[in-house]
Design brief:
The complex is a heterodimer of chains A (121) and B (106). Chain A has no helices and 11 strands. Chain A is mainly β and 121 residues long. In chain A, a hairpin with a 5-residue loop joins β4 and β5. Chain B is globular. With 106 residues, chain B is mainly β. The chains are: A mainly beta (121), B mainly beta (106). Chain A binds chain B through residues 35, 37, 44-47, 50, 59-61, 95, 100, 104-109, 111-114, and chain B through 34, 36, 38, 43-46, 49-50, 55, 85, 87, 89, 91, 94-100.
């Protein structure tokens, strides 16, 4: 079964850091680009960051550039998001998503169930 | 930066009705446009990719069309299980989602 399972969310104070993980199974992980997409409570979807199959191409939304770092470990079939200098507006459900392609951004065909990040003092 | 304008933001229709949602890009994005369905409390699901290609396993009542700046998503005959929020997403540059359309049953 193709599956993505996120972990690492929680309650964190503004200015602190958090690292999200996404464990992939059921497909050849290093054949595809991967992404993080978030959804603030009651709001729409926001693409956060994406990484190509070999980490050669990486992109970030302007809202997180310079604060968040995406990475992947193909040997562990895992995707990560290091989030630093967290703000209240980063509060959201963070989804891990698989792309249709390996080298650029196209469409997100497999999604995890998400991990909730709450930034509050 | 590319802007995506999705409309309407919500709609109410009867079972069996034809439902149309539009998405307009602020510049030419060719056919680099996808559509997703998100049911309450669930992760989004890819329905249409590359503007008009139906994802495997998606019912044929869903369809997409358009290219350049103007795109349309259609449900040919609305079913109760189609109650959800629908999003367009462009990938001409960095991925960007539209604001969403909440579809309800009248």
């Amino acid at each position: 079964e193709v599956q993505l399972v996120e972990s690492g969310g929680g309650l964190v104070q503004p200015g602190r850091s958090l690292r999200l993980s996404c464990a992939a199974s059921g497909f050849t992980f290093d054949d595809y680009a991967m992404h993080w997409v978030r959804q603030a409570p009651g709001k729409g979807l926001e693409w956060v960051s994406g990484i190509s199959w070999n980490s050669g191409s990486i992109g970030y939304a302007d809202s997180v550039k310079g604060r968040f770092t995406i990475s992947r470990d193909n040997a562990k079939n895992s995707l990560y998001l290091q989030m630093n200098s967290l703000r209240a507006e980063d509060t959201a459900l963070y989804y891990c998503a698989k792309d249709l392609v390996a080298t650029h951004w196209r469409a997100f065909d497999i999604w995890g169930q998400g991990t909730m990040v709450t930034v509050s003092s | 930066d590319i802007q995506m304008t999705q409309s309407p933001s919500s709609l109410s229709a009867s079972v069996g009705d034809r439902v149309t949602i539009t998405c307009q890009a602020s510049q030419d994005i060719s056919n680099y446009l996808n559509w997703y369905q998100q049911k309450p409390g669930k992760a989004p699901k890819l329905l249409i990719y590359d503007a008009s290609n139906l994802e495997t396993g998606v019912p044929s009542r869903f369809s997409g069309s358009g290219s350049g700046t103007d795109f349309t998503f259609t449900i040919s005959s609305l079913q109760p299980e189609d109650i959800a929020t629908y999003y367009c997403q462009q990938y001409d540059n960095l991925p960007l989602f539209g604001g969403g359309t909440k579809v309800e049953i009248k």
